[in-house]
Amino acid sequence: MCGIVGYVGDREAVEFLLEGLSKLEYRGYDSAGIAVYDGSVVRVEKSVGRLASLKEKIEDDMPKGCLGIGHTRWATHGRPSDRNAHPHTDCTGEFVVVHNGIIENYLALKEELIEQGHAFKSETDTEVVAHLLEAVYHGDFEAAVREVLRRIEGSYSLVFMSKKHPDRLICTKKDNPLVIGLGDGENFIASDIPAIIQRTRRTFILNDGEIAVVRKDSVDIMDRQGDPVTKKVFEVNWNAEAAEKGGYEHFMLKEIHEQPKAVRDTMSQRISKDGKEIVLEELKWTPEFLNSFNKIYIVACGTAYHAGLVGKFYIEKLARVMVEVDLASEFRYRNPIVDENTLLIVVSQSGETSDTLAALKESRRLGAKTLALTNVVGSSIAREADQVLYTWAGPEIAVASTKAYTTQLILFFMLALYMAEIKGTQTPERVRELIDLLKKIPAQISETLSDVEPIKTFARKYGFNEDVFYIGRSLDYDVALEGSLKLKEISYIHAEAYAAGELKHGTLALIVEGVPVIALATQKSVYEKTLSNIKEVKARDAVVIGIAAEGDEELQKYVDHVIKVPETDELLIPLLTVVPLQLLAYFAAITRGCDVDKPRNLAKSVTVE
Ligand code: AGP
Q: What is the pTM of this model?
């Protein structure tokens, strides 16, 4: 996610641009920039780092002019740097663009434009759009923008500015948000409502494919063919704080609901066009090299460690390669058996967790090759590892990790399938079948999110218990670990996850009347065994909430409540079963009046030992 702003009116554009970007920093904050037209030139100012660095850079010589655009970046293509910061211009500096999203065919377009003589200054996908606009412009700004939109593929919200047409900005969107704030003799453009809510509450919310030509006293909206579109004014009644959370009460709930898009974005570009195979272009190792490792470690902390447990299962099940998973804080001091034949995979949402970074550095010192799965482009772990696969979850603000976890699972699944393709351990038919199921996951997560009321009820009913147990076998156990961490860290309830088969080896002593037990029973291969464990805890009068797949009519006979998730392959169902557990933790924390986004004693990124 990135933050975009635009201004056209009679006041100094820079005032709104900086104010609007400061309200959007939660969408991305690794670099920022603005472009302002002063009547003769377009002045572009950018800076790596937070918005404060840009403000410091221009405070003694603010750009002048009443037409401008701005951007605060969450890097996807091209690491955070001045050069890669937006806005981006064409060769002449007469066309300027800011962008949120991913231009999926930018490499092909870039090659074509370079052949035509265009000189690029950055590594970004966005700069291609500015040069493409220059290439197709023949005097009609709107027509040129429509042609650009015919040529690019991907997801985007875009704002275009041209000194040849200084009375207007043009903006459009596809799969990313964009709003137009309607002022009096001035108009505003922004990725999100928080940026404009101080200036106006009257807005146009653009729909995918719509193009808006924004002047200071008019907004003309059209479709891709240039035909006019009539739009109703949307009056924003949110308060400023709620607006930052997209109308959700907390960032955690917003991020839980962002999971379908985060998972879709992480998958996009990594499935071949014919849907028959996984393509990991960013992985610069040859298949033979990836095949050459005789040991694989997955090392991480917290939720990332829980994702690593699922990753182990995927790689062993699909690629038939042995994997060891370890906590980074243990691994780094265990004098691990690592050499040049070892592959170390580190997982980290922030890319800054000190234990994980230290384990990575230690393994590299011992000769291992290293692969990072992280959500932050240019993070310390991303820079230290030999290779990086990014989750495209966008900034995760809440301390409790949710969309990072599900995108890490997706990435592990695609890596395991990619390795299976190389090793031939899965038939092409099975690979195709799993890819088809993979593509359905975003919609199935949405379906799981569509009715949260039962989970809210459970949370209210059991949210005051001081002990909760999570049980499951196989992948259900791995997800149970993640569910119990969610509940612990934001509701402060003492929750423990146990392999269901372990209960009789001690934990069953703690199961007494009324103790809530969340029992995950989606893994068909061990279903009967799990059922017998559920009967064990029911026999001690526990209150059991079962998590089952849609078609399961058996489980409800043995538990007090059942939460169903859509049917899919048992390898992929963890992406769905974790969602009710995230929501259960969220609503339990609300019930107990806890600070959901900033739980006590915890930080979003643990950059100390
Ligand atoms: C997860 O909800 C926690 N906030 C925490 O366990 C987190 O997953 C852990 O600190 C690892 O963080 P990272 O993914 O940024 O490395």
A: 0.81
